[in-house]
Amino acid sequence: xxxxxxxxGIYQANCYIIWDEGSKKAAVIDPGGDFEELNEFxxxxxxxxxxVLLTHGHGDHIGAVxxxxxxxxxxxxxxxxxxxxxxxxxxNYSNQMGYKDIELxxxxxxxxxxxxxxxxxxxxxIHTPGHTKGSICIKYDNIVFSGDTLFAGSIGRTDLGGGSFxxxxxxxxxxxxxxxxxxxxxPGHGPSTTIGVEKKSNPFLKD
Length: 207
Fold this sequence. Notes:
globular; 6-stranded mixed β-sheet; metal ion binding; zinc; single chain; alpha/beta; RibonucZ/Hydroxyglut_hydro; Metallo-B-lactamas; hydrolase
């Protein structure tokens, strides 16, 4: 699996473009804005975008979803518990984030344990509620794209609609920290980290 990180949009949310080298089939995780930059990378690498995978429904992660779907005829996927958030500008906060109002309908509702096939790549969906009810992480081998659930040295905020501090700690503790220490974490904002580093030094995960 190959992937490229592109911090996009007003809030520089990390968009990840994942692709299978053999087939050039690709998926875009969280296209938060700046579609032209995303498209330039896709076209220069001759990728065929099949899916838009959303780790959750907040405005800073969905700013270029409509353009991405229209350009590539890609299938938009979000967890079933954030499906309605994507459709409502008040729930996804796009009307408060400096974006145009964003109201979209996903093509598929994801659930925990779903597998997304991308050429030879099989990605597992891990439901990690807490930042939102429908937050997910996307896992391939020892790589996890963690959205706004787990950051380097921090965790996602839980004071917005559908957020729960208890839930996010439970999700991280029981679904992420159980992974091997060398598991690489690529979050929705900021630099990458590993499970081992976060176990040792993340102040929110101390006993």
